[in-house]
Known about the structure:
By secondary structure, this protein is an alpha+beta fold. Helix content is about 25%, strand content about 30%. The protein has 5 helices and 12 strands. The relative contact order is 0.13.
Amino acid sequence: MPQPTTIRWSSRAVWLALLALTLGPVTWSAADEESALTHARSLSLAFRKAAEEVTPAVVTIMAKSKAPTINDPERLRELMRDPRLRELFPDGRFPFGVEEGEEGPEFSVPEQLTTQIGSGVVIDKNGLVLTNSHVVANADQVIVRLQDGREVPASGVRTDPLSDVATLTIPTEAVMATARLGEAGKLSIGDWVIAIGSPFELEATVSAGIISGKGRGIDKIKRGRLIQTDAAINP
Length: 235
């Protein structure tokens, strides 16, 4: 006589089966698809409008500084008399402007300039620009490149290393647009944000992301708190 078949269900399997019956197949109606497309177009338009409004106010900062040079002629001549170094330059043509003279090596080191590149944003119709302190600190000359390609000198450079914030001023006639500063207190984690700048001199670069955190602190910033985002800052 055949034995009855016994089926044993685990509690997990039962719950999964009930869940599948409850949810049923996921289907998209034509109205759902149109709604999703409309939402995507609206979001894209919001990004586009924000970029169009703010990009003209974003500038490239070029901070030029004199490179350190050897300022002790006797010490340089002593180095150039080293037989091992002279073997490398038997024709007497030394690097860095050093040449063989009648009384030994003579030098004339040309002035060298180094350039630090950063981004800034015009925040005032009078030409006030907000940028980073580490970009312009100790610079001998600061040049600001506008979105239309013009380059203008900056003046009134002020830096705050504790917050890594700096301000400078450009001529009022050079102001193309200004960006309006917002209030951090009105932002929430998950809000959309865009970043606009000139990483690696790729001007008017725009990236998007969300606010990942608020009130962040890092060792290098001793004053103020930061907003964390997953928007690429150096894409």
